Amino acid sequence: xxxxxxxxxxxxxxxxxxxxxxESVMHRELAACVADFAxxxxxxxxxxxxxxxxxxxxxxxxxxxxxxxTGVDISxxxxxxxxxxxxxxTWVEADVAALPVPDCSADLxxxxxxxxxxxxxxxxxxxxxxxxxxxGRAVTATFAEERPRVARVHRNPYPSDHEPFGxxxxxxxxxxxxxxxxxxxxxWADTDxxxxxxxxxxxx
Length: 204
Known about the structure:
Radius of gyration: 15 Å
Structural class: alpha/beta
Helix content: 25-40%
CATH superfamily: Vaccinia Virus protein VP39
Low-confidence stretches: 148-154
Strand order of the largest sheet: 3-2-1-4-5-7-6
Shape: globular
Strand content: 25-35%
Distance between the termini: 37 Å
Number of helices: 7
Order of helices and strands: HHEHEHEEHEHHEE
CATH topology: Rossmann fold
Mean pLDDT: 92
CATH class: Alpha Beta
Largest sheet: 7 strands, mixed
């Protein structure tokens, strides 16, 4: 499957989930955890990658009402839901490996439960480096290897690869290969899933 075809499958899959996505307690609670984990001192502009229905941006807005929020996603259905909840935010339908966003325009990038589904992760992370300001940070949440979620992963209609992001060591290796360093991590878990929440900084 080509990257273009894979993006189409991902887009269609999330379009179908858009109306009920927010019913997931896991997604709502994880978004709140990521927002609490993110360091917001000095942060003005936030870019949420694969934003879905904008749960992370909603949680961040609850912490700091003056943030300038932008969400990017391949799914127009998801963005329609996001727009209803945060009409003043900026919503962009785009491939996250080719962001239509200016250089050095974000203080904070967030990306939650999405890295495994991005066809060209290296290109996406290269875009993060371009978009982040020099003192900017990124925060990711990726499924941890302790709970591989085999049954749920197999239901996905698109190819996905959790392995590079399933442990702090592997995440550090991915970060180093793309000009980042992982500065801190935590594990979030519920009864079904465990996720690695991590802060990334541009390597000096």
